[in-house]
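Quarterly update, task 2.4: iron/sulfur cluster-bound model.
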Amino acid sequence: MGVNILANNMLRGYARMIEKVSESHIDEVLNKLSLEGVYNQLPVEEICMVDYLSKVLSTLQKESCGKCTLCRISLRQMTAILKDAMEGRGRTDDMSTIKLLCEGLRLGTDCTFGKKTADFIEEIIDKNYLELEEHITKKGCRTMVCQEYTTIHILGNLCKGCGNCIDVCEVDAIAGKSGYIHIIDNEDCTKCGKCLEVCPNEAIIRAGIDKPRCPERLIRVGRFRTRRKG
Ligand code: SF4
Ligand code: SF4
Ligand code: SF4
């Protein structure tokens, strides 16, 4: 095959690639991937930005035609980084790595998809940097969407020591006896939430970044003070 024929074939192939994700289509996709499009009226304070970004990436992975290695690998890598960030394996340079991948995508692809998705992803990161960082540095999710980062607590001032919670806990993560404030061991707790459903006093809560102060040993009901004196 002559060099010109080969070049023409490559150009035709490339044109097909670009055609596959046309500008109007990518605009439509990105429009649907706006916060309102993805969560449909959920208040913004209930939306976890890491969860949102991972939904965005999952859709973009499906929309990419996958013919450029850079686009394929970058989106896959960003998705893996976010999964780690949501599951407690985040690293301090994760967000800057995603931004670097965006930069590569923007500069290294001629297709509108690569450039527009890079801008879109980077804008989400820039606008929500603190919240994204919290998942990594504080291992916390302020909206409590990332279950991995929540913990379950029994509030010492509300527990009446009835024992309902112990009965439903399948992993024996709750310590207590009748008339004493019960305590959850978050090392053993699977965060299933069953104890929250059976407490008649709403003494059990799920916490995100801010954890309540709770008794650290068994003490009698009514003897726990939420604030230390002095
Ligand atoms: S940048 Fe992505 S969508 Fe565009 S041609 Fe390459 S692989 Fe396909
Ligand atoms: S936390 Fe609730 S269910 Fe458990 S012992 Fe206290 S009052 Fe009862
Ligand atoms: S959330 Fe589930 S595992 Fe954790 S203490 Fe409650 S019942 Fe047990």
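Highlight for this quarter: Residues 152, 168-169, 171, 173-174, 184, 189-195 surround iron/sulfur cluster (ligand 3) (CB under 6 Å).
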